Every structure is written in structure tokens, then in C-alpha cells.
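worker-03 picked up job from queue 'complexes'. Input manifest follows; two sequence lines, order preserved.
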Amino acid sequence: MSSSKIIKLGFVGFGTVGQSTFIALQRNLCQIKKQIGCELEVVSVAVNDLEKKRDVNLGGVTLTNDPFEVVLDPNVDIVVELIGGTEIARELVSVAIANGKHVVTANKALIAIFGDEILLSAQNEKTLIRFEAAVAGSIPIVKALSESVRGNRIKAVVGIINGTCNFVLSEMATKHVSFASILGEAQRLGYAEADPSFDVMGTDAGHKLAILSAIAFGTKFQFDKIHVEGIQDILLEDIAYAKELGYQVKHLAIAVKTPGGLELRVHPALIPLDHILASVDGVVNGILVDGDLSGPLMLSGAGAGGDATASAVISDIIDVASAIYTGGIKARALRPEKLLDYPITSFTESVSGYYVRVEAKDKPGVLAEISRVLASFNVSIEAIQQKEARDVASAKVPIVILTGRMTERAIREVCEILASSDSIIGGVICYKVEDFQWAN
Amino acid sequence: MSSSKIIKLGFVGFGTVGQSTFIALQRNLCQIKKQIGCELEVVSVAVNDLEKKRDVNLGGVTLTNDPFEVVLDPNVDIVVELIGGTEIARELVSVAIANGKHVVTANKALIAIFGDEILLSAQNEKTLIRFEAAVAGSIPIVKALSESVRGNRIKAVVGIINGTCNFVLSEMATKHVSFASILGEAQRLGYAEADPSFDVMGTDAGHKLAILSAIAFGTKFQFDKIHVEGIQDILLEDIAYAKELGYQVKHLAIAVKTPGGLELRVHPALIPLDHILASVDGVVNGILVDGDLSGPLMLSGAGAGGDATASAVISDIIDVASAIYTGGIKARALRPEKLLDYPITSFTESVSGYYVRVEAKDKPGVLAEISRVLASFNVSIEAIQQKEARDVASAKVPIVILTGRMTERAIREVCEILASSDSIIGGVICYKVEDFQWAN
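worker-03 finished. Artifact:
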């Protein structure tokens, strides 16, 4: 690879993030040169549509609509992959690496699913791959995990890492409007995609957790082993009852080391109102890293958007350019060479308190019945409240329970027993209460 | 320097942080080797008292009470300076660099005051110097500023970076107990030094701000140009009145780029209760970085303590060891080679809203008089409240005012005029209200 004083970049993908990155790079080239000692130059850009009008002065950059031209261009040192998706992107990145290019990507799905294959081929070809922008926009969480807490044994990583989910839940909590209406608003504001299912059903947060957990614990990328739930079924009344009990409903991505292995789970959960993650509102992302030396470290900031993502992409470009320029290509690996292998524990074995809501017949003895069921599982009741019937005529009363710590397996049995009781009408609502007490 | 597979460390200083670092390194040597590909070994440690009993298994490490033995030891690749202070430490670091050693230090005063001289000599001798642990314990703020937001133009860095001040203010706000009593409690808990003046008068936060601002803006270390105020005069009643108005009193360290230059200031200020920095409580530190691309990024965590500081020291040791091992010694500089030179603006020209409290005679016309004074400076009044007299017999009533934005120079004139009024009894209390609106 070139070790000349000009490091050459080729972009594949030139949407919002690509253009923001390009513009910010042009503006700050001088500042970056002062810092790293070498120049950066964008030499080619692959776009989808050559004819499209863009508000970007491309100067002398070669435009092409064939992304393979960029990844095969002998002039290109670093390929900046911002095309998204896992099919063409996977091939492009693989060809780029095979041709000795370094790669910077913002593609979370690609790394979450094909990260092992990609990192291994980069290692074999002695090229660098960086993906800070794949998780949580401008928040430098990949660098923090791979470099700043490296002397720690990580206990847990807990993140609010999907801006759409967090925006929707924050708005439901403050404006008391249903999931569906807020989602519509989020789409109008550009905070949610036209097809939001990828976000609201938890897949996007799952991809990001696969990346965070692999870096934090030095394991494979294990997206397929993550338990993933979304926020699509959350009701306003549960957000309101949670708040009365001192909790906020958040969509969390959790990787925690337990004596039995690694728990990897994405789901809505109640967290205490005064917990630092409860203050992460709207489209902001926040990630808590708990290390044995560092204690809880919290990073928060813009989790999406062209400029915020560009901030991370550029930091990766500078990292790689620095390594090329200084000859330090054999730079610190993002994960250990020999990966660690923890068993992934089953979600049903994960332990926490639970929030349970049932609609009960308005008759004596229901509270006692619920208490007996939980007692038969040897689980304590932290709080139990009979709420006012929302509809007086219906003769249904909501009962809200906070349980002590128990397994998901046990709470599911409890919920089944309650659902089949004559005193309970309809389904049983149940969410984890996350107390951030790691059992390790 | 050695590029063999074992990188050798020499410690000078072996107090709380030194011992925590040593123990954590021993425990994690294997994990670190897997990550960076080379081994680390502590070969010598300089202590104050050779006879002192320590709960540390030193194995085969050479103990000495002459720190110069360590910095001159031809076996040592990296000197870990944890001795503190600026006199011997300065000489030790300088001798270490002159002898081609790399240096990792947690010494904030040393870097804040002699950083330029030290970084320049390291640059000349082609050795590395790192000081993540000098600011905010385990929070990776030096790395975030020097690497992760490098593509940004930084607008401002605002930190709660003195745990003692933050603990005292948090406790005053929640327990309604005076500065002096809380300080005593903090000393008993080990959160404050026997001589706390260095912390509570703002010097420590000033040292840290000198470091943060130099890295964020690529300037010299300019501790001597920072306006520094402490928290020693803050009264409970002002914390209470602030809260009634929707604000919390925090001790802030602020570096902000303005059209006129760089503002560098450390002082107590009112911040909105719902601002993210308001949730940084107790001994926790929090730092907000505002970049033009990233938007506001917040990092928070343990700002002090043996283990938290060791976490940062070890991340620096790994950074340097990686660079030695990969041959990338000419690694990215923490600041540009040619430093930037912004004028440091005078504190009296800094603009913000203000909280003003006076004790007025209980007679008509006082509110009108205050309003007239502010109007004569063309400053709006955001809120003005006459409080109940705390001592009915005294015929004094507290009046609390929130002003619109104005310069410190103007508010000082206002306060002088008010203090000399016949209607006002005693001194005038005045604090900045920080609205986090940067004028650039």
C-alpha cells in the first residue's frame, strides 16, 4: 500500500452520510493534515445515479456508477463504504480487502452478520477495517470499548441505541399519545424510515449489540444468538403505570457477562426514573459500559444523522490514514487474535424483576390469588397495586405487580397460570425491570 | 527503543493509583497480550518508603527508593509517572524523555503547567507521552478529543471535572446542609483531601481545563490564562432559590470558541435542571463536547479513585505499547504540530444570563429601582422574585433576579450600583446562568 504523503480515498455510496462526510472532509483537510502529518484526498466516488443534482462541489473527483471501479482503483488506499445493505456491500468490501485496500464502513448489518468473515480477511490481507459509524452515530463507543477500557474486565454494556425507538417511547411518555400516532410523527420528522419495522421491531438495535458485544468481550459477532424484541406492542397505560411506580420504559440492548456465559438481549424494559439512561431522551443514543476498574462509564449523543455519522466516519478515516502514514498498519486489533468463546445463555434463564399487568374481574380475592401464584414460585412481590377501572361499566380492574428477581422462564409460567385463571380477563402484559445489578 | 515482544514498564510513584494499576495489569496481562500481540512487564518500581508494608505481590520487580534509577534504567521502555506534584515529577519526566523513554502520566498539574515543554521534548526525542488519567479518571476524554472528534470543529467543551466540588454541591442541594458541614463529611468519606482548598477553590478543575482545551482546540496549555473561581462561598439559600427557578448550581469548567477568541473559565454557575450535566451527581464527572458535526457528545463516569484512574493509565500504557510493537511510534499527535493560537478573551467580556440576589430593605420601590438599573444597561429581566424575609425582625427581604444575556463587565457594574443603593443591605450575590448557547 501507498505510504506516500497523500492518502487516497474512494467512496462507494454517496447518500446523506456520504455527502456529509465528503463536505466535512473538504472543509477540514487542512486541520486534519496538521494533526496527522499527511494529506487526504478523495479520488473517486461511486454513486447510484450519475445524473442526479447534488449540492456538493466535487472538484476533480472521478464520479462513476460502478462501485467496483472504486474498490479496484489502484489509486485508492481507503475505501469508504456507505452503500448500506449486506449483499453488494459484502462483495464490495471483500473485493476491496482482497485488493489490499483498507475499509471504513458505517454498515451495521454488514458487520453484525458478516463481521467475522470480513475482519478475518482484513487480518489475512494486512489491511485495516474500521466501523465506528456503524453504532450510535457520533458516539465513539467502538473506540472506547476497543481501546479505552482495554485494561478492564467488562461486566456489561447496556445501550439505548435505536433513535427511532427512543424517540417514540419518549414521546409516548411525555405526550401521552399512542405508538401509532407517534410513529407517524417520527416519519414526518425524518426520525423514522418509511418502513420502520427494522427499527421498531429491534433488528437494528440487535445488529448494533452484536457489534458492541463482540468488541467488548472479544468474541465473534453473534447477531443470530441475540434475543430481540421491539416496541410495537407497548401501550400508553403501561408507560403511565411504570412512571407512577418510579420507572421509565426504554428499549434496551444488553450484553452482560454472567457466571453461565454471555446474555445478549434487546427488549423494552422498565428502568428507574433516576437512572442515567432514563435521561437519554428523544433521538439521542446512550451507552453504559461497566468495567471492573472503570466503574460505570456513560457515553451519549446523536445516534444518527448525516453530520453525526460523518463525524465517526472521519475519525475512522483519520485512524486508518494515521496508521498508513506512520507505518503502524499492524495496529491494535479491535478484538484479540484468538477470540474468546463464552456460551450464550438462553433468554429464558435471564434474571430480573418484572412488571406484570393483568385485567382482573372486580371481585374479592384476586390480589390474594396472584400473591399465591408468585409465592408458589418463591418470588417476592415488591409492589402490587389495584388501579381504577378505566371503564367502569366493564367490571375489569387493572392490577399492576412488580416482582422480585426471577428467571424469564419462571415469569412465563406465572403469566400462563394467571392468563388461565378465571379471575383474569384477556392477556397478561409483562416487561423486565432492569436494575443494573450484574451477578458476576 | 526496544521493539522486542516484551515491553518493559517502570513505575515512579506507588500510591493508590500506582498499586491499583500494578494489580490490574498483573491480572490482565494475558488478555492484553491477546489484544496487542506483545507482552508487558513491570521491571522496576520507585517507592517513597522501601520498608512500608503493601498488599501487593511484587514478584520479581526491582524496588527502589530512587525514582531516577527507574527513569534511567536502560531496560525500561515506558515510564509510568504517578508521583504527582510538579517539581520532582517534571525533572523525572524530562530525564525519562531525554533518555528515550515513553511516558504515561496521571499528573494533571504537570501537564497543565509544563505540558508544552514536555510534549515538545517528547516530539524532539521521538518518544510518546500520554495522560488520559490526568483528566476525569476513567472517562476517555483525552482520546475522544484527540481522536474521535478530529473531523469536527469544536465549539465548546464543558465539564464537571472536580469530584469534590460536585459532591459538595450535590449534597448541599439534596441535604440542605452548609458547605462547611458537607466538606467535613466529604473528608471523612475520602472524597476530599485533608487540605481541600486545591479542589474547592477551582485550581484542580483549572488544571484539567487547561489540558482539555489544549487538546480540543489544538493550542498551548494555558492554565495561567484561565479565569478560576471555586465553590467556597456558595450559600444554601442560593442553591434553594436556583432550584425554585428551575436551575441547579454546578461547578463548571468551560472552554468555548467565540468570534473574539477562546473563553477559558472555571466557576460555579446555574444550569437548567433538565440539562444533561445537571444529572451528573456526587463524585461523578461529566464532560460535554460540542462539535460542528457530532453535535453534543456527553461522557460521564468515575472521575477519581484508584481503579478508575488505573483504567485510564492502562489504556495509555496499551496505546504506547501498541505503537512500540507495531513500529508506529510516529503515532498521531495529540495536538497539531503547528499549534493554533486563539486570543484568550477576558472573563469580563464573557456573555451569559445572571442570577443576582440582594437583601433589600422592606419598603416600596425596591423592585422598580432594580429594574431601572438593569434597564439602563439595556438588559432584560427574565424573572424577578421577592422572597419571604428569612428573619422577620430584620426587615430585610431577599430579592432574586434572573437577567437576560449580558457581559460579566456589565453585571459587575450593575452589582456595584445595587450594592451602593440605600435600599440594598450588604453585598450582592451573583452567578452566571449557563444556557449552553455558543455564539459561533
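worker-03 released lock.
The first helix of chain A runs from residue 16 to 36.
Chain A has three domains: 6-137+306-326, 141-302, 347-433.
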